[in-house]
Write a structure and sequence with these properties.
3-stranded antiparallel β-sheet; alpha+beta; 16% strand; 15 helices; elongated; 2 domains; T-fold; 506 residues; 8-stranded antiparallel β-sheet
Length: 506
């Protein structure tokens, strides 16, 4: 649903509250702010809570009837709208006998007028709203509009009385709005059911290639590039005006939403992994030659010095949302998580366009939704981890069959160098300050979102095989594949139990 449709829906739902509020205002006869605000508050509160409850209940099984979801949404809206239209023609006295100052009466009226909103929440689930973040805005709008309309209704009833109230026919117009929205949903369904082409767009971002395939009646490359440009302006340490660059320069700024979301999720995963994942590793990465600034090859004294300004517990967000460092020499790098989050951002952009079938790939970090052009699950290959600094090798170790997941892979087989006969890979252990020397060569993670998958994959490369296995097995919300070398130097693969359901070729 578009923003305009949500506001119109909120107005339609609020008409019951509006009508009751007019009647309550007639009974009050004069402006009494305390009972009026109480009534408006509870009307708005229950109008917001009910669709949330409906969405929670329906979202658990909406995927089972996906082919009928738009029809169900239409039937709900048409039924509610038709009932409101019918009720509007009943010859009832607008001056009902009850006490609008009684809290019990107000609560009873709030519940009665919000029952319809419960059904609306069900329709949200059937229209593809999967996450709480998607439902939050609609229910907030519904609650706000109901509060405002209730307050207006009370003031209207006090000022004008029954005569004009009857002429308004609030329920009639509310019903018409709901029916119109329901009809539009059917029109969109008919449009969607036409065979729409799959588009593939590609380009460069963050020093890597992106490939995005989606089913839609139009080319979205320009809009995708614009969204990625905004993202780059937040989290690219190579962009001199980016938010993260300005924070590293200790400028007094309030970070944007992109940065804040990455920072908070990074802190959560850092805590979960006991510091194996840490965005404060930037000075160490720079010193070893893998960051956004090139430093001299460090000795042990330099590593120890840099460890003093490394550690996720030494940085936080203030109440104002600003980054607070224990030492101003600290620098942040989100390179181990930013690509994953960029994939999520583009996936959210496509979903808001009503696109259900797509795959977003930025530098090997992936989100897949719906089905591929062959009306099958998306097939994602995991590369065999052989030293390949030029990214020429495309031999696959495993192929995954997936949908509705985020996938990320981290490995030490592309970004590395040799010095004095010793290999130094780009994965730096934030706890020791040194590049890792484990037998694990690559870690692939499947998670609900790509940002989390990206961060966990990096953490697993830091942990090493045994610790990574224990962590992955203990967390049911993620699945993982680890490719490693055994004592004989042979490639071996470890899968979590849940990961095996995605595998089509070993």
């Amino acid at each position: 649903m578009t923003g305009l449709e949500i506001w119109l829906l909120a107005v339609g739902l609020a008409m019951d509250c509006f009508a009751i509020s007019i009647a309550s205002g007639i009974l009050l006869k004069r402006t009494l702010w305390r009972p009026m605000l109480t009534m408006a508050f509870f009307f708005g509160l229950f109008q917001a809570i009910m669709p949330l409850l409906g969405w929670i209940g329906a979202s658990t099984f909406s995927h089972l009837i996906e082919s009928l979801d738009h029809w169900i949404a239409f039937i709900i809206l048409a039924f509610l709208g038709g009932r409101m239209v019918r009720e509007s023609f009943k010859d009832e006295d607008c001056k009902k006998e009850y006490d609008p100052k009684s809290l019990k009466v107000v609560l009873a009226l709030a519940i009665a007028t919000s029952i319809d909103a419960l059904a609306i929440g069900v329709s949200f689930a059937f229209l593809g709203m999967r996450d709480f973040s998607e439902i939050l805005a609609p229910i907030s709008v519904i609650g706000f509009v109901s509060f405002v309309m209730s307050l207006i209704g009370l003031l209207f009833g006090i000022r004008f009385g029954c005569g004009i109230a009857r002429k308004l026919r609030a329920e009639l117009w509310g019903g018409i709005i709901l029916i119109i929205i329901g009809t539009k949903i059917l029109i969109e369904l008919a449009r969607h059911n036409r065979t729409q082409p799959y588009y593939t767009v590609n380009g460069l971002i963050f020093g890597t290639v992106y490939n995005i395939t989606y089913q839609y009646d139009g080319d979205l490359k320009a809009e995708i590039d614009e969204e990625l440009k905004r993202f780059d302006g937040s989290l690219s340490p190579f962009n001199d005006t980016a938010t993260i660059t300005r924070i590293n320069r200790n400028e007094d700024i309030v970070p944007d939403t992109f940065f804040t979301n990455v920072f908070r999720r990074s802190m959560e995963i850092s805590k979960e992994t006991n510091g194996a994942f840490d965005i404060t590793v930037a000075p160490l990465a720079n010193a070893w030659g893998f960051g956004f600034k090139k430093g001299a090859f460090p000795d042990s004294a330099m590593v120890d010095s840099l460890l003093e300004i490394t550690g996720y517990t030494k940085v936080n967000l203030s109440e104002e949302g600003k980054v607070v460092k224990q030492d101003e020499r600290m620098m942040l790098s989100c390179s181990a998580v930013a690509k994953g989050y960029a994939v999520d951002v583009i996936a959210q952009f496509l979903a808001k366009k009503g696109i259900k079938n797509f795959m977003v790939d930025i530098g090997g970090e992936i989100v897949a939704r719906g089905e591929n052009p062959k009306k099958d699950l998306w097939r994602i290959g995991i590369n065999k981890p052989v030293d390949d600094s030029l990214s020429i090798n495309q031999e696959l170790q495993t192929v995954l069959n997936v949908t509705d997941v985020g996938i990320a892979t981290s490995g030490n087989y592309r970004n590395f160098y040799y010095r004095d006969g010793k290999k130094y890979a780009h994965t730096i252990d934030p706890r020791t300050g040194y590049p890792v020397q484990h037998n694990i060569l690559s870690a692939t993670v499947v998670a609900k979102d790509c940002m989390s998958a990206d961060a966990y994959a990096t953490a697993f490369m830091v942990m090493g095989l045994e610790e990574a296995e224990r962590f992955a097995d203990a967390h049911s919300d993620i699945d993982a594949c680890f490719i490693y070398t055994d004592e004989n130097g042979e490639l071996q693969t470890y899968y979590t139990k849940g990961m095996e359901r995605f595998i089509t070729k070993k």
